Structures are given as structure tokens and as C-alpha cells.
Amino acid sequence: MEKTRDITGKKKITEKCGTDQTCIAAAEKCMGDKDAKPPVDDKMTDIEKLAAFNKCLESNGKGADIINEQDCANRPGSEGQREGRSRHFEKCKKETLGYLRGLEDSGDAAAGDIRCCFFQAIGVEMVSSDNSINLDFFRQHLKDRISNEGVLKEYELAFKDCLPRGDMCNVHGFRECVMDECIRRMQNT
User: Fold this and answer.
1) Distance between CA 99 and CA 67 in Å, rounded?
2) Region (Disordered) spans which residues (predicted)?
């Protein structure tokens, strides 16, 4: 598990900092120094999540864009049924996220409503019942990963600056803003 986190962390750090050593040192502090808790088991299957996403499309006037399971299937090949099925579900997840990003990029106002509907339907803890960012979730997530109180304080300040980026359940925008702010602040400490 640690190996995966390190690889992912280094990739994110390289994307954000390039070869800037000050930025890299700040980003490493922001990434955390503790092993993260394993993810909680999903209570919904991927097919149930896809069905929930499609209901959100329908309720927001996008019924013509429903994603069928077969449309995002990655048929199993020589790798075996189990791996193929797993990749199939991952591809469906990418299809739903890709669809939302496309709506956002085109400026479609329905993107936020669909995202909030979907997150509420599948029980995403990062979003509160009023569709705002659940800061308590993010605070706990950080405490599970970071022991440095100085870094945690910088994140707390970043939360205030980045909260508007989380409007309409924009978890991705909020997380990116918070990480960028943490890195910026840690470079100046």
C-alpha cells in the first residue's frame, strides 16, 4: 500500500512542481507522512452507481445521454474474465467522470446539478447533505495522513481560500485548489 501511495504521490508532485526543489520539498510535506487508512468498502456496486448516474442525467434533462453498461464495456480478452470485468467497471467510471468533465468544459449549467445528484445518490462523504464541501471529512482525512501541525494549519487556511471552488459539489476543483495552496504556503514558510 505504501508503495502505491509513494508512486502516486511522486507523480502528483512531478506534475505540480517539475524539477523545482523548493516546490518538491513543500509538496512532499503536503502529501503527508503517514499511511492512509484503507478505503471503506463501497455499499453500491459499480452497476448501481452507473444506474444512479443515469437517473441523475434523466432528472436534469440529459436523458438522451444515458450511458449504457455495454457502451463502456471493455470486453475481456486473453487476460481472463475477472480482470476484464474489473477493467469494464473502471471504464464505466471513467465514462461518467469524462461526461461530467465534458459538460463542465462546455459551460453547461447542468454539470453541477448532475454531480451533486450523483454524489448524494452514491453517498460520497466529501459532500454534505446541502451539497457543500464536507470540511470535517477533509480535516479527518488530513489528520489520518499528516502529523506535522504546521502543515495541518496551512491546510486549514487553504480550506477558507478554496471553499468557493467546491461550489456545486466540485470536489476535484476544491482538492486541487487546496493542494496548490498548501504547496504555495509551504514554500513560503
Assistant:
1) 9
2) 68-87
Q: Using the CB atoms, write b or e for 110-126: b if 16+ within 10 Å.
A: bbbbbbbbbbbbeeeeb
* Set of cell numbers at residue 60: 436534469
- In 3D, which of 64, 65, 131 has the Cα closest to residue 98? 65
Q: How far apart are CA 92 and CA 75, in angstroms?
A: 12
Q: Which residue has the cell 506535522?
A: 148
Amino acid identity at 106: S
Report the alpha-carbon distance of residue 179 to residue 189 in Å, rounded. 15
Check pLDDT > 50 for residue 76.
Answer: no
1 pLDDT exceeds 60? no
Centre a 10 Å sphere on the Cβ of residue 13 and count the other Cβ atoms it contains: 20
Question: How far, in Å, CA of 4 to CA of 164, rounded?
Answer: 31
Place of cell 465534458: 102
What end-to-end distance do the CA atoms of the chain give, in Å?
30
Per-residue pLDDT band for 4 (boundaries 50, 70, 90) equals very low
Q: What is the pLDDT of residue 186?
A: 92
Average pLDDT, the chain: 83
How many helices (H) does the chain have, and how many strands (E)?
Answer: 8, 0
